[in-house]
Structure formats: C-alpha cells, structure tokens
Amino acid sequence: MTILVTGATASVGRLLVDELLAEGAPVRALTNNPARAALPDGVEVARGYLGKPRTLPAALQGIDTVYLAPLPAYVDDFVRCARDAGVRRVVVLSGEPADYEAQGDPSTWHYYRLEQAIEAAGFEWTFLRPGQFMTNTLDWAASIRADGVVRTPYANAVQTPIDLGDIAAVARVVLLSEKYGGQKIAMSGPEGITPPEQVAQISAAIGREVRFEELTPSEYVDGLAPVIGLQTAQWLLDGFRMMAEHPMKPEPAVLDLTGRAPMTYAEWAVVHADAFR
C-alpha cells in the first residue's frame, strides 16, 4: 500500500522518502515544488501542500498510511480530507514539548494540537516526539562566520539534539510496521550537551576558535523579537529556561528501533562544517 509523505521537499520528509525507497516501499510525495525536492525515480509525486487544503483530496486518494509533517494551523483540514479519503493510519511528526503544552492554555498548543486532532479523528496513530534538531544551530552560522561568536541565553541548558536523518530512520521503521500503533515515541541524540559544549565542537570541526557569550533573557528576546515576533522569541526562551531547570536526558528510541547508534553532535558538526566556515 502506498505511503503518503507530506512535507517531502525538505527536512525530515525528504530524507524519509529516501529511507522508504531503500526498503522498496511505494511512496507518494506531497510537495509544492517537485523540482526543488529533487525526488528520485520511483517516487509518485503529488503536487500540493498541507497549507493548501484543496490539493489534499487528490494526494490522499487510495492512501492507507500518511506521514504527517507538523502544520497545526491546517490539521483540521487534513483530518477532514483524510477521513473522506479513507485513510486508516497517521504517523505524526510531533515534538518533545507536547505533554508540557497540554498543561497550558489551548491557544498556545502546537504539537499537542496536532496530536489531539489526529487522535480524536479516530485514525490509528503514532506520535514521533523528537527534541531539538541539530540543524537548529545552523542559525549560529552567520555570527560564527562574521565574528567567531555564538550568543544565546542559559549556558547551562542541557539538551539532547537529534540529527534529521535519525528522525527519518525511526519514521521509516514505524511506517513499515503495525506494532507501534498508539505509541508516543520520544527520541533524541545520544548525549546531553550545553550550548558552550556545542560551540566547542563546532570550533573543533572548523579548526578555528569560536567564542560563546551568554545573553541575559531580556537581551535574547529583545534581539530576536524584531525578527521572529515577541511570542515566538519568548517561546524559544522558555525552552532554554526549561532545559536549564530540567536537564534533558537521552532517549534510546533511535538505537532501539533502527539498530544503529544516533549521530553525535560532534559528528554532525564535522559533516556541516562548511556552513560555519
């Protein structure tokens, strides 16, 4: 049965397409830009986007199982179209903060909104809950190239960042098996690591000194809010604060489900060194 991969242009979805093809699974890739996605031969292309609900009925036709990229604002449209199409199973890329969000105001829900909508709709479901992506630190590249410095708050925040390829590998295992239904799978990289430690590993990867400077919470929000908005900047700051107050610990899901050790941050920094040079 063909699997629909949404968000197939970039990030986890594009990597997942390759993972599924390598296993010989039939794949239909939902992408708004097939040329940019550079999808390999053997992939059925559905032109569209979760944020354009009118494109979903055709993409979902004949589909049993969906990998759902996170776009909470349009999850109700997806649910409606998927139920009309007879979709049975949905594997959701959610996030580690889902349970924390559930304790707050519904207006602030992001990942938890996705999960609630899919579960309430009656699909067979699995929720993938990675923590921070290693690729998030590519946001540091400009300041590293220009000034040799990284500035963030909460130097003692311990996170367990994960490589996108490891998320895609876990998603492939879950999509090709029926035994993970009803599970919320937390996943992470193999280590707890602080921002100064990440900076040191980038420094080693590029062969030159990179300094770490800790910002106060107000300095961080004031600098970021004009770019991404006050609410998002505060949300990111709260994440750093939570990881300082409650250091994250590695989850075993990548190794347990795929049989391979997850990528370390030092390995990731070497692979992406050119971005920081």
Structure in words:
By secondary structure, the chain is an alpha/beta fold. The protein folds into 2 domains: 3-130, Rossmann fold (3-Layer(aba) Sandwich); 133-162 and 190-248 and 263-277, Rossmann fold, CATH 3.40.50.720. It is 44% helix and 15% strand. The protein has helices spanning 11-22, 34-37, 56-60, 75-85, 98-102, 111-120, 141-147, 164-175, 195-206, 217-228, 230-245, 253-258, 265-271, 273-276; strands at 3-5, 27-31, 44-47, 65-68, 89-93, 124-130, 149-153, 184-187, 211-215. The strands form 2 sheets. It has a 7-stranded parallel β-sheet with strand order 3-2-1-4-5-6-8, with helices on both faces. The protein has a two-stranded parallel sheet with strand order 7-9. α1 (11-22) crosses α8, α9 (195-206) runs parallel beside α13 (265-271) and α10 (217-228) packs antiparallel against α11 (230-245).
Order of helices and strands: EHEHEHEHEHHEHEHEHEHHHHH
SS-based structural class? alpha/beta
* Gyration radius, rounded: 19 Å
What's the end-to-end separation, in Å?
45 Å
At the first level of CATH, the class of the largest domain is: Alpha Beta
Mean pLDDT: 94
Count of DSSP strands = 9
Strand order of the largest sheet: 3-2-1-4-5-6-8
CATH architecture of the largest domain: 3-Layer(aba) Sandwich
Number of domains: 2
* Fourth-level CATH superfamily of the largest domain: NAD(P)-binding Rossmann-like Domain
Could you list the spans in which at least 5 consecutive residues all have pLDDT below 50?
Answer: none
